[in-house]
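Email to the structure team, subject: beta-fructofuranosidase model.

Hi all, the expression group asked for a predicted structure before they design truncation constructs. Nothing fancy, just the tokens so they can compare against earlier work. One-line instruction: predict beta-fructofuranosidase, return tokens.
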Amino acid sequence: MRRRTALTVVSAAIGGAVVPLSFAPTATAAGEPRGPQSPTARWDFDERTGTVTREAVSGSDDPVAYVFADARYKPDSDPVRRRGVSGRALYFDGYSTFVTADGPGELDAGGGVTVDTWIAPYAYEHGIDGKPQALVNQHDPDTRTGFLLGLRRFGQIVFQLGFGTDLVEVRGAADQPAAKGRWTHVAATYDPAARQLRLYRDGRPIGTATTPDEAPQLAAKEPLLIGRHNRPTVLNGEFHANMYMGLMDSLVIRPGTLDDETARREHAERLAALPGNRVPRPDTTLDGARLDGDRHRPQFHMLPPWHWMNEPHAPVYFKGKYHIFYQHDPLGPYWGQIHWGHAVSTDMVHWRDLPMALAPAADSVGPDGCWSGSAYVDGDRGPVLFFTGGDDRLPYRQRTGMAVSSYQADRDTDLPTWTMKSGPVTEAPAGLPAGPGTAWAENFRDPFVWEEDGTWYQLVGSGIVDYDGTQVTRKYGGTALVHTARRPEGPWTYRGPLHHNDLATVPEPGEAWELPVLLPLPGPKGSRTGKHILLVSPWWEAFHPNAVKHTYYWIGTFDKDTCRFTPDHDKPREFDFGEHFTGPSGFVTPDGRSVLFSITQDRRSEQQHAQSGWAHNAGMPVSVWLRPDGTLGVEPIAEAARLRGKQLARIRQTSVEEADRRLADVSGDMLDIEAVIDPRDATTITLAVRASADGSEQTLLSYDTTEHRFSLDRGRSSLDPDVRKGVHAGTVELDGGQLKLRVLLDHSMLEAYVNGTNSLTSRTYPTREDATGLRLTAEGGAAQIVSLDVWRMNGAYDTAVAPAAYDPPRPTDVDALPNHDFATGDLTGWTVVSGTTFSDANVTTRTDWGWGGPFYQSETPADPTGHHLWGFNPDAGGDAATGVLRSATVVLGGDGVVDLLVSGGNDPDRLYAAVVRAGDGKVLAKETGRGTEQYRRVVFDLAAHIGERIYVEVVDEAAGGWGHINIDDVNVPVRRT
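Reply from the structure team: attached below.
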């Protein structure tokens, strides 16, 4: 078991309150301290290009790691640099940017040490695993050696120094953080004479800590890392946490000690040397241009400039502008550290990015996350935001809060500045009555708020359960809890559950509801119908294969006096068949339309997110209305047509064959397609999009006239075996005997709208540059094209759309490793060398491991069911079993690049997949798992070994937890004989 680190903390915060610190001179125990000396290491980050930064003292060029230095989906590019305090500064992106150096030079820490730098943070990390965001560190927490300068939660400045027996930490005063969006000079010093660590912020003391009598010990065997923690927590098997995000300039490491007077004087001298004697304003904004050329990133859909987003929410119209907010992790393309992103538009399709609206804050309702919510206009003070505040200190962790903009003070209709109210709006106490049981207090989130006739209404997503003390003994189903008030601040009165599903008879909406939305349903021409639509996202406590795939709705009547919703149909319905339209939010536009926003999950692996630098995007907003037959009408908002550019095709009254011939010259990965087709006696009509010339890649949209079924077939959508494929479909009736189709293509986005009643939202990830064609066919008879129009689409943002980048094709004059993807369903072609852990029983088509998420094994045309080798065999000893498995021996050919999928335990010495030279048994390359079952693809460049006889060996010599390894899709270019 890993030894716990002894961490001594002396902070300026005592008993939860910030108290004044005395920084009077301290009597020295061993003579006067030495003042700061000449640096032993200094990085100015003044480079404008390249992937190295110069260490000025030694003159060495230290590498800057950056995800796009060797990009997978876009052209290679350099790390981001901006104007610094003086010269240039390096932008650390929060998950991939860091500098590796040999060390701090000839540093004698026993005589004192000083570390200082300028930083302008963009976002604070949550404090994952209790570790700081590292600005610079060379430390080993297990041996309590080395040093770290960094930030704890909410920007609190900290410095750690190891003495072998203790790792002492000094924390700056909580009310003196390194503020976001401004330059702060941070300095830390060790004073051996006073036995003290001291911190300075902009030349002023902010914290002290007492150190042991012995001298500090550096961690010389550790690399010195700038921007990344020496012992980071690994998230989802892919992301390194505890990394810095923001600008950094002029990092200096010096021997000697900084005292209060010297710190003040040095800072004054720094300011005097700057133009105007002032620190410039840093530019920490995220620029989406760094992702230009990404072949899969949408261009005319709303999305953040970088990193991760989930559901857009809180759409609101105010003073001529539409505002949308969204769940956002600014530190990387992964879930966590939830903020509210913000964008503004005049038409709901052209967007401008604005500063983040809400961020976790120590003195707020949401110190541990600002989760989803809604917005509504409160008279002249403008919109107010309602959000879910996460606070892990509370028994049930979730409650709702409110934020207001600075509009009344600044009259800025962009609403760039928001302030969270300190107290909660609503919360769910234990035992809150809710129909057949009580509200599930641990699940109380996603407020949806509106005002009507002087009453404010609030829906909060939850579930209904029975409790036995604190344990849930029965789950009845999901619900939305209703509260009302006379004003947004409250007090709010609980009115009971709006509606709920019975898990026994209607299990689809889940055990709890997320993101409940209740909107009036207008008629086809905007008339009032008296009907409402209730939409929910289902949630389950444990892993569920249908999680984050569906949006259900009921049409019914809302009684605003009783606060109850009565559905017209018992079973909930779906209007989107694609399993990508999720997380709805909605509002009523000034002209009376009910409009829904959604998140379009991209269904990519954590590795693909890390390599691309972004995750997910918003769907095209859709209008919903009540059709004369009482069913739901659905179509993209009319404003989507404003994104149209050049018309590429206009076809009228012709055969399918002639239309297909005229489409031969039409291509694109950003298109708007409208078609009206008379099927006549055809049994199937198919539109192929994103089609390559040879048909090896294409995505098929088909309508079966006999089964009245509209489908999307992604079986050949991509040659990438790691891309999710499959078929999605649903029943759709023709409209007056015609098929009316609208298709929006936006790189990986595909949205199809059929007959004004249904949609199908999906993803397609072609690998070929020519996979941009269109094909139209009919089977079983002759169909007639009434009209067919195709437009090229412009981007949603002001910048020009960059062409997508594609990689050159791999060699094709090679054979494959026998049974490289286990498509036979057993170990044919492989040999069990020893042990019991590998057998035919390990080959499975399971898509998840039961208690967790998806494997993301490969899907190929030859093996659409996705066989793979799961190293955990419960019938043969599970993790305790060991063994060795070996492939056939082959001659390496082609370009010598071997790739495979691997997952499982993390033990590079005892648990790995390796490429081995057959002649002498030398391991040429190997890879272990990362403590997760989700596969990641690893690539070995073995071009130097082309022509040699090699084999692949899978080794499991580890027992205990995570003592197994999984592999799939082992691609070895085999020389043909």
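The first strand starts at residue 7 and ends at 11. Confidence is low (pLDDT under 50) at residues 1-31. Ping us if the truncation boundaries need rechecking.
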